[in-house]
Design a protein that fits this description.
heterodimer; A: mainly beta; seven-stranded mixed sheet; 50% strand; globular; B: mainly beta
Chain lengths: 113, 111
Amino acid sequence: NAGVTQTPKFRILKIGQSMTLQCTQDMNHNYMYWYRQDPGMGLKLIYYSVGAGITDKGEVPNGYNVSRSTTEDFPLRLELAAPSQTSVYFCASTSGTKDYEQYFGPGTRLTVT
Amino acid sequence: ELKVEQNPLFLSMQEGKNYTIYCNYSTTSDRLYWYRQDPGKSLESLFVLLSNGAVKQEGRLMASLDTKARLSTLHITAAVHDLSATYFCAVLMNRDDKIIFGKGTRLHILP
């Protein structure tokens, strides 16, 4: 199992550009989460999903969109990038029923200039 | 809204000493996580605590959960330099399955 994979690892965006951060898990987990971590800070929940076709807002959803068309994939879309979105983005997943572990991807480091 | 508070936020301690990190949360939860993060890395799962009174131990780290007090502790025994890292607790909201993180405790162990 590859676990949770994220692409790209690094990205520099100009203000106003858009991009999609990819997240895929191969553990057949129903629950998936997107977090952002600003330098020296904790993790803030952006969006999450409890299953294919179901998404909901977290603590800091403004400026982002998500979709969950399959169990495996949970892409995060940034529209009109702003410097305040400079952060490290982590995707995570959990089965919620078996081992209850929340598995994290390696992260995407995004800089908006 | 669920609030998760960790303290202390920064901790510098000598090798060989014991210390405890506290995690308080504000609403009902059946699941609490502890993670370790090294600089520039992703999060490494340490413990998942599922019930009141749960206690788990791995090496020099021991975590416990008191759901009635809405409190979890991460106890470090005879600290060693390799345990220097940032430690996060995270709590599952029963109501809607959000998992919310505390701000983290940056632990620096002096040799």
